[in-house]
Design a protein that fits this description.
The complex is a heterodimer of chains A (877) and B (585).
Chain A (H helix, E strand, L loop, with lengths): L1 H11 L16 H4 L2 H20 L6 H19 L10 H13 L4 H17 L5 H12 L1 H9 L3 H13 L2 H12 L1 H22 L4 H9 L2 H18 L5 H24 L4 H5 L2 H10 L4 H17 L8 H6 L1 H5 L23 H17 L5 H19 L5 E7 L5 H9 L17 E4 L5 H6 L7 E2 L5 H7 L2 E5 L8 H11 L4 E6 L7 H8 L9 E5 L7 H17 L13 E4 L8 H14 L2 H21 L9 H15 L1 H20 L2 H13 L19 H16 L4 H15 L2 H13 L11 H27 L7 H74 L3 H4 L1
Parallel strand pairs in A: 1-4, 1-5, 2-3, 5-6, 6-7
Antiparallel strand pairs in A: 2-4
Chain B lengths: L1 H10 L22 H13 L10 H16 L9 H24 L5 E7 L5 H9 L17 E4 L4 H5 L8 E4 L20 E6 L7 E5 L8 H12 L3 E7 L6 H12 L5 E8 L3 H14 L7 E6 L12 H16 L1 H60 L7 H8 L6 H32 L16 H28 L9 H13 L5 H11 L1 H37 L4 H16 L1
Parallel strand pairs in B: 1-5, 1-6, 2-4, 3-4, 6-7, 7-8
Antiparallel strand pairs in B: 2-5
The chains are: A mainly alpha (877), B alpha/beta (585).
């Protein structure tokens, strides 16, 4: 351990020109031998970081160490070529101490052994560089697997961890993936496959044995290959051209990316996400442009692993970005180990920003199914950047100098650095690639992230006061953004996304150009707090004019929506200076010094990024209209369904039928007789042959369809398009089979098992009616008897009896009809209610509930979005 | 920005022969490659039989016919190529109106040289220096020139004061000013663009200089205006600076100019004198690399006098450019050649641009056709579906079915009819909304449907419901009348209730198989023959109303699209106008 730490010193200087890790400068040899180790220890920082972020990895230090080793391995791979003359044993040796450090009991031995074979194998084709390379990769790589296995899920890690430690590095990787989840596994395999496909071609005559081993451990050949390729590059050409170097960096990155993936694979969420990825990710990796890809993925993985599951990394954009962290191919700054020199602590975002990032991650996760990846791409990018930046030094602030061609960016850069670092000239465009200058150590990883190769890293003029003032500043001189050279603009666009702050340099001639305002300043208006706008070349302006121009510039910036940091308010700083004469540079230096000392620029930048993303996503989440399914809409839906099954008509029919029956039962016999004859004469219509198997489709389909349409329209009202589509889909899904279900329900509800209930007075009415009839008959008979002379003539009583019967019959009939009204209505209502309830219940279960669920989901998303915006959630409403 | 470029792209297509005559220039001025240029001029001259402009009335007629066609072309659908086509059209119009037609009508009018370039390139200073006094406001604030300034000889004034060229710009004329006067800030910046006309004796006759606004500043109006002005130019002078000569925007323009074989003059301005040679060499190299090697390049150093809107540059600094321009203006041969070439260039460019416009018009029509056919097919599908459902008796379901079951004991004929009518209108409404939904779905994938008024129609479902309800009720009334007619033919004694007959017919028509009894009942009541007749008539009526309703709704849906007035004709007309023009040339 101590040895390792001692070494770190050197590695930290990697960002210094002299210590350029890529080894194209004269000093390269000496430190290079040690760099890897130093980096190994540095590598520890990242896992720990992750752990702490996870908050659930207790005491898993060794794992962390391994993870570090993994990086180390890569790193070393990268550097391997340089150390051409290195003994092959170096690998194992290095492997072992590291293992011990890891404290993993029995593993070290196995690993070391493992490492050696790997060594041997990969070493065969290549005399010097390759062996060490291979050894390194062999020895170190088990660790990632293990640590990764452990990091996210402790439970699994134990057994497998050790096992993996012993097995081949890549295999271990592959296995981790295997166990973690199906989707991920394929991904690992396929990406491995891509690499192995590459291996033969690029690595040249690689022995078959190695490849055989590869079959099991898919990821492996690629890794070796990358190393080889790198070493090959070195062999080919001792001071490799920039291109090759860059390529190899890219490759190492790529590797890392893959490994990271494995780690992230643990994230539960990955499963689904992994599916489409392998091909997408694998392909671009190979292309030189694939740099970005590899990177983004790494970032994403980190993020997702941490988040325990947002598979942020499976959309196209992220894949594009993969290279950046890879660029930072080295492990993060070594702040965790006791170092001789105070290592830069990783960045810590403040709580609100952390919460917002978490919310954004959550938001991306839950809306992935609804929004297309293009919409979420920017959000994914921001999350990646936030994760990537967070792992890197928090002591440093990366400030880019951007501007139009000929505005004096490089001159300002040189003026700030105190030395002529960046080429200046009258030739337009002058600067073609970004150049970095770091005022203090430990920023190598940060600069790596920007993809600035070692040969373009510089140190400022060493002067104590300048160092004290600007300590922690990493200044990046960018190419122009407006010249005819398109690749310059691409570089600018790429780097601007990664830096913590920007100094926009404008000059009196170009300060009102549309390009800078429309393309950069307006879109980045939210980043005002991490923005300086500098009016350069004021020496070209006559006295008063400088003020005028500055005022005009302020006005333009104001129109761009950029808050200006005047009167102590937060916002962009606007200064006038002349880099040529040095006028005003001091002021800028001072302001920059204060800015850097605050060390909150990265956080603010990320925060502004999140703001911008939130604004961009706003149409997908917010419409500003009231959302929800009102009670009225629900009632209306029920009514429509009831109409569809004909509840009202059925109720009325039942009521009338009941009353008709009652009337018939209580009617006078004569009336019944008449009706009977009437019925016999009249042909019957609808009621006649009541063979109604036609009850198929008794429900009005069109009404159901329309009801569903209306209710889904109501529910979708005020929702952003993706969510309204989801709501409609839910409604349509629910409506499938609804008419059939209604048919069935209605059939069950309309056929009551028993006969209609009869009121208690019914028999009495019938009895009364009967007695009235009897009275009539008795009276009639009596009269007849009198006429016949059987009985003594007495008109009074029989007539009275008859009249009573004749009058009483209709009376009773009328009375019972009146009395029957209530029960009939109740009966009809009962029938209607049964149908209605059946229909409503059916509709609720099939349509309303899914709709409500969908709305609830939206509401959750909406709240999450509110958290992302960071404003009081209510106000975003 | 982009729009501007599109515009500029077209603008530069003028072919213009450059045969600069380089005087023995002062040391600061580097006149490049004049031998080469002279050779080149000779070459051009050789092939310049086209240069002779015979302006026949037929040509002018053909041109104005073409102009009208172009003016009539509309590109209302927001297709990918539409903005470009619109810009193309505008710019073509501008070029025809502002340049080609006036130029052909009056070849003797003075040459117009437009000074264009980036903001802060020193265009105004250059114009002032060429004229010899401050005619155009120069300053340090960008963009300085917002109002174009035209400078001409007093005797040429009448050419420009009228609406002969640039008719869309309001003329502002200020009387001659004392040289020492401060130029009042153009406070009167009204909404409409203005053109300030200055006269100066120092300028020769037959030459007018136009100080255009910048091509790349923040003020978008400036960019558009600059493009418009360039349309009217005989000679275009592009000004860039030592700090800007690699800017993408001017280069884009230069490259476009080259593509269109336009000849232009470039001026490299504000070159610090220490680096004059180097910068102009580099710029020259860039020009050569871009294939613009023969474009005359004049270098103007940054002198203290030019310091940001101060005074004028010394005459020597701009002498070569001035001489070059004078030569164009005064030597009849050079003048005619310059003019004729530019005009010819525009005419030639029509060959390329008109088909492009026609293509865009065709694309518009195709898109409109796609939209229309989406509506048509949606409504066709729904129409077929409604018919099928009617046949299957879908109307006689739900409430109507319940009524029919209860009929006639527990339900009156009127109630039955009511519920049938309601059910029928619900069916129609349902199919109309379904068709609309289909249309929306297809249109959502069509960029052309983004046109205002197409997708964002207000939910007029209520009114659709209203319209459909009206139609169906009307059908019912007619049915009742038919029934009455039939019943009247019967004997009084056996004549059944009219409403009952109507209800039975409606049920039989709408109930499909399910209402077989209704048909039988009807036949029993009014006799088989008249029952059949009644059903026939009712059926025809129903089909009629159904078709009418659905067609009505379809038309309503198509109305906004029709209102956009996208036809197939413009394409053919544009091409036809072009071919007529070609014939006349």
């Amino acid at each position: 351990m101590t040895a390792v730490t001692a070494v770190t010193d050197h590695t930290d200087h990697a960002d210094r020109p002299g210590d350029d890790p890529h080894g194209d400068d004269p000093h390269g040899d000496e430190p290079r031998g040690e760099t890897p180790r130093g980096e190994a220890s540095r590598g520890q920082e990242r896992p720990r970081d992750e752990r702490s972020r996870d908050g659930r990895l207790g005491g898993d230090r060794p794992a962390g160490g391994h993870d570090g080793d993994a990086h180390d391995g890569e790193r070393r791979g990268t550097q391997g070529p340089g150390a051409a003359g290195r003994p092959a044993e170096a690998g194992p040796q290095e492997g072992r101490p590291r293992d011990e450090r890891s404290g993993d009991g029995g593993t070290p031995q196995g690993r070391a052994e493992d490492a050696r074979p790997a060594d041997a194998r990969s070493g065969e084709p290549r005399p010097s560089g390759a062996p060490s390379d291979g050894a390194r990769s062999g020895g170190t790589e088990p660790s990632p697997a293990r640590s990764e296995g452990r990091n996210p899920r402790e439970a699994r890690s134990e057994g497998r961890g050790t096992q993996e430690g012993r097995t081949e590095d890549t295999r271990a990787d592959a296995r981790t993936e295997t166990t973690s989840s199906g989707g991920v596994r394929t991904e690992g395999a396929s990406s491995g496959g891509v690499r192995s496909g590459d291996a033969p071609s690029e690595g040249g005559g690689r022995p078959g044995g190695n490849r055989a081993g590869d079959e099991r451990s898919a990821g492996r050949p690629g890794r070796n290959r990358a190393g080889d390729e790198r070493s090959a590059g070195a062999a080919r050409d001792d001071a490799p051209s920039e291109d090759t170097r860059r390529k190899s960096i890219g490759l190492s990155k790529e590797r890392r990316a893959v490994r990271k993936e494995a780690a992230a694979a643990e994230g539960r969420f990955r499963r689904g996400a992994g599916a489409g990825k392998p091909s997408a990710a694998g392909l671009p990796e190979r292309a030189p442009a694939g740099e970005g890809d590899g990177h983004a993925r790494v970032n994403a993985d980190d993020g997702s692993a941490r988040a325990d599951g947002d598979a942020v990394w499976d959309d196209g954009l992220i894949a594009r970005r993969v290279t950046e962290p890879a660029t930072g191919g080295e492990p993060p700054a070594p702040d965790t180990r006791p170092a001789v020199q105070a290592p830069p602590a990783p960045l810590a975002y403040d709580a609100p920003l952390r919460a917002r990032l978490d919310a954004l991650r959550e938001l991306v996760g839950i809306s992935r199914a609804r929004l297309d990846s293009g919409t979420l791409a920017e959000a994914g990018r921001v999350l990646d950047e936030a994760a990537a930046r967070r792992k890197l030094s928090g002591q440093h602030t990366v400030v880019a100098i951007a501007g139009a061609t000929g505005s004096g960016k490089s001159q300002l850069f040189n003026a700030l650095a105190g030395v002529a670092i960046s080429e200046t000239g009258v030739r337009r465009p002058t600067t073609a690639a970004p150049i970095a200058c770091s005022w203090s150590d430990g920023a190598a990883t940060l600069i790596d992230r920007l993809g600035i190769p070692g040969r373009l890293r510089r140190r400022p003029l060493q002067s104590p006061e300048a160092e004290a003032q600007l300590r922690g500043l990493v200044l990046v001189d960018l190419p122009d953004h407006d010249s005819a050279a398109v690749q310059h603009r691409e570089q600018v666009d790429r780097v601007l996304k990664l830096v913590d702050a920007v100094i926009w340099v404008v000059d009196p001639e170009k300060y009102a150009d549309a390009v800078i305002h429309e393309r950069y300043l307006r879109p980045m208006a939210g980043h005002a707090e991490v923005m300086f706008v500098v009016l350069n070349q004021v020496d070209r302006l006559p006295g008063e004019a400088a003020h005028q121009v500055l005022d005009d510039l302020r006005r333009l910036l104001d129109e761009d929506g950029i808050a200006l940091g005047e009167h102590g308010e937060p916002g962009a700083t606007v200064l006038a200076l002349s880099a040529l004469t040095g006028d005003g540079v001091g002021e800028l230096r001072e302001v920059l010094g204060q800015f850097v000392t605050r060390r909150n620029a990265p956080g603010r930048r990320i925060s502004a990024d999140v703001d911008a993303t939130a604004t961009q996503l706003r149409p997908a989440y917010v419409t500003g209209r009231r959302v929800g399914l009102s009670e009225e809409a629900r009632d209306e839906f029920s009514d429509r369904l009831a109409d569809a099954v004909g509840a009202v008509a059925a109720g009325e029919a039942a009521e009338r039928a009941w009353r008709r029956n009652a009337n018939r039962a209580c009617g006078t016999p004569w009336l019944r007789l008449w009706r009977w004859t009437q019925e016999r004469r009249d042909p019957q219509t609808g009621r006649l042959p009541v063979r109604d198997p036609a009850d198929e489709e008794a429900t009005a389909r069109q009404r159901v369809e329309q009801a569903v349409r209306v209710v889904s329209d109501r529910a979708a009202y005020g929702l952003p398009a993706p969510w309204s589509l989801a709501v409609r889909e839910a409604a349509v899904r629910g409506a499938q089979g609804l008419p059939e279900a209604l048919d069935e329900m209605a059939a069950r509800a309309t056929t009551p098992a028993r006969r209609p209930p009869r009121p208690g007075w019914w028999p009495i009415a019938v009895l009364a009616q009967a007695s009235m009839t009897i009275l009539q008959i008795v009276g009639g008979l009596w009269l007849v008897a009198q006429i016949v002379g059987v009985m003594s003539p007495n008109l009074g009583v029989p007539v009275l009896l008859m009249v009573a019967g004749i009058v009483g019959g209709p009376l009773v009939e009328w009375g019972s009809r009146m009395a029957a009204r209530g029960p009939a209505r109740r009966y009809g209502q009962e029938a209607e209610r049964r149908l209605r309830e059946a229909a409503t219940g059916c509709g609720r279960a099939r349509v309303l509930d899914p709709l409500a669920a969908e709305l609830l989901r939206y509401r959750e998303v909406r709240e999450e979005y509110g958290r992302v915006t960071g404003a009081a959630p209510a106000s975003v409403g | 920005m982009h729009r501007f470029w599109r515009l500029a792209h077209r603008v530069l297509c003028t072919r213009y022969a450059c045969a600069p005559v380089i005087p023995s220039a002062p040391c600061v001025l580097s006149a490049r490659r004049h031998t080469h240029m002279l050779q080149n001029a000779a070459k051009i001259g050789h092939s310049s039989h086209v240069v002779t402009l015979d302006v026949r009335p037929q040509l002018l007629d053909a041109l104005s016919a073409l102009r009208d066609r172009v003016a009539a072309a509309r590109f209302p659908l927001p297709l990918a190529g539409a903005p470009r086509a619109r810009a193309n059209r505008d710019e073509l119009l501008a070029q025809l109106d502002d340049y080609l037609v006036p130029r052909l009508r009056q070849p003797e009018a003075p040459l117009l040289a437009v000074i264009g370039g980036s903001t802060g390139a020193g265009k105004s200073t250059l114009v002032n220096s060429l004229v010899g006094r401050r005619v155009s406001e120069a300053g340090v604030l960008r963009p300085t020139t917002r109002t174009p300034v035209l400078v001409c000889h007093p005797e040429d004034h009448h050419w420009f004061s009228g609406m002969r060229v640039l008719p869309q710009l309001t003329r502002v004329w200020r009387p001659h000013q004392e040289p020492g006067d401060d130029l009042p800030g153009l406070s009167g910046q009204s909404m409409e663009p203005v053109l300030r006309i200055e006269t100066a004796d120092t300028l020769p006759r037959n030459l007018a200089l136009l100080d255009a606004p910048d091509i790349d500043s923040l003020v978008a109006d400036n960019r558009v205006l600059a493009a418009e002005l360039i349309c009217a130019a005989d000679i275009w002078v592009m000004v860039t600076t030592a700090a800007r000569y690699a800017d993408a925007v001017p280069w884009h323009m230069l490259r476009t100019a080259k593509e269109n074989k336009a000849t232009l003059v470039t001026v490299l301005d504000r070159v610090p004198h220490q680096v004059v040679t180097e910068v102009s060499r580099q710029y020259g190299a860039l020009l050569t690399k871009a294939g613009l090697g023969e474009v005359p390049l004049f270098t103007v150093p940054e002198l203290p006098e030019s310091a940001w809107g101060g005074g004028l540059l010394p005459a020597t600094a701009v002498a070569p450019l001035r001489t070059w321009l004078l030569h164009r203006a005064q030597e009849p041969g050079a003048r005619h050649e310059a003019m004729a070439r530019t005009a010819q260039g525009v005419l030639d460019s029509l060959m390329r641009r008109m088909p492009e416009l026609a293509g865009a018009a065709a694309a518009q029509y195709a898109a409109a056709l796609r939209l229309t056919s989406a509506v048509e097919s949606a409504y066709d599908i729904e129409h077929a579906r409604v018919k099928g459902r009617l046949q299957a008796g879908a109307v006689l379901s739900g409430g109507a079915l319940k009524r029919w079951r209860a009929f006639p004991l527990d339900c009156t004929a009127g109630e039955l009819l009511d519920s049938l009518v309601e059910s029928l209108s619900e069916l129609l409404l349902c199919s109309v909304t379904a068709a609309d939904e289909r249309v929306d779905e297809v249109w959502r994938r069509e960029p052309a449907a983004e046109a205002p008024g197409l997708m964002d129609r207000d939910p007029t479902l209520e009114s659709a419901e209203h319209r459909i309800g009206m139609a169906v009720r009307r059908w019912r009334r007619v049915m009742e009348e038919y029934a009455e007619e039939e019943v009247r033919g019967l004997e009084k004694s056996v004549a059944p209730d009219t409403e009952m007959v109507a209800a039975l017919v409606a049920t039989a028509l709408l109930g499909g198989r399910r209402a077989r009894n209704a048909g039988e009942g009807l036949a029993e009541r009014i006799g088989a023959h008249s029952a059949l007749r009644l059903r026939d008539r009712g059926g025809r009526l129903l089909t009629d109303y159904l078709d009418r309703t659905l067609n009505n709704e379809r038309e309503r849906r198509l109305a906004p699209l029709d209102a956009l007035d996208v036809h197939a004709e413009p394409q053919a007309e544009l091409i036809a106008a072009l071919s007529v023009l070609q014939k006349e040339r």
